[in-house]
Write a structure and sequence with these properties.
The protein has helices at residues 29-43, 61-66, 71-94, 117-125, 143-153, 187-192, 200-208, 223-229, and strands at 9-14, 48-53, 100-104, 113-114, 129-133, 158-163, 168-169, 181-182, 184-185, 213-217, 235-237. The strands form two sheets. Strands 4-3-5-2-1-6-10-11-9 form a nine-stranded mixed β-sheet, sandwiched between helices. Strands 7-8 form a two-stranded antiparallel ribbon. The protein has a single domain (9-237), classed as Carbamate kinase (3-Layer(aba) Sandwich), CATH 3.40.1160. The radius of gyration is 17 Å and the shape is globular. It is α/β, with parallel strands linked by helices and 243 residues long. Helix 1 (29-43) links the parallel strand 1 and strand 2. Helix 1 packs across helix 3 (71-94). The chain starts with 8 loop residues before the first strand and ends in a 6-residue tail after the last strand.
């Protein structure tokens, strides 16, 4: 581990909307490039990086469900959308000279490696960024849960959820100027208060495996760096605050 870094290996959870343009949907190559630049800065510190990206910019299963679509079908469509996002982010990263591999939980060898835990860990040890696509490969599980699962499987030291706000509040700070900011939460607090940090399955998985979750602003150029060196930033979800 590089000197001064708190974490050796991280799992970065990014929403699909991070790749969308001003219209809020689709894939904007310029936004993908900006995301890649933020990740490159972290990559240059020497930390090992795995990524799970959502698909909200391309498909939301809830829209299909509202119109009577089968839940499994809607979820599989979402998994395929995450592969599109993963490929777009891989391309943006490699144009920043960051060697990247995409692994898919649904086999599609023409565009991605199949997910193999030991191979993923080997890529990370060789300082390659690994993007995990297609969720867990199963319907009824969110990309939050996929992120928690993959983080535990690869023995990540922390799960970093990168959002568009600077941490967790008791309500939407964009709508409520008096929203209360939480510097630290326990897993149970986050579950009981229904704060939408991550879904309850993901939170429970992190709690059972004592995996800390750090929620921070993706677009703050210093937030990720501060998190890696142990400075206070965003919201920490864990059993006890990190010293």
């Amino acid at each position: 581990m590089s000197k001064g870094l708190r974490y050796k290996r991280i799992l970065l959870k990014i929403s699909g909307e991070a790749l969308s343009g001003p219209q809020g949907f689709g894939i904007d190559p310029l936004r993908a490039e900006k995301v890649a630049q933020h990740i490159q800065q972290v990559y240059n510190t020497g930390v090992e990086i795995a990524i799970v990206i959502g698909a909200g910019n391309l498909w939301r299963g809830s829209q299909g469900l509202e119109r009577g679509m089968d839940r499994s079908t809607a979820d599989y469509m979402g998994m395929l959308a995450t592969i599109m996002n993963a490929l777009a982010l891989m391309d943006a990263l490699e144009r920043q000279d960051v060697v990247t591999r995409v692994q898919s939980a649904i086999e599609m060898r023409a565009v991605a490696e199949p997910y193999i835990r030991r191979r993923a860990i080997r890529h990370l040890e060789k300082k390659r960024v690994v993007i995990f696509g297609a969720g867990t490969g199963n319907p009824f599980f969110s990309t939050d849960t996929a992120a928690a699962l993959r983080a535990v499987e690869i023995s990540a030291n922390v799960l970093i959820k990168a959002t568009k706000v600077d941490g967790v509040y008791d309500s939407d700070p964009n709508e409520n100027p008096e929203a209360i900011f939480f510097e630290h939460l326990t897993y149970i607090d986050a579950i009981n208060m229904r704060l939408q940090v991550m879904d309850s399955t993901a939170l429970s998985l992190c709690m059972d495996n004592k995996l800390p979750i750090h929620v921070l602003n993706m677009w703050d150029s210093n937030a990720l760096r501060k998190c890696l060196v142990g400075e206070k930033v965003g919201t920490l979800v864990s059993e006890t605050p990190l010293k």
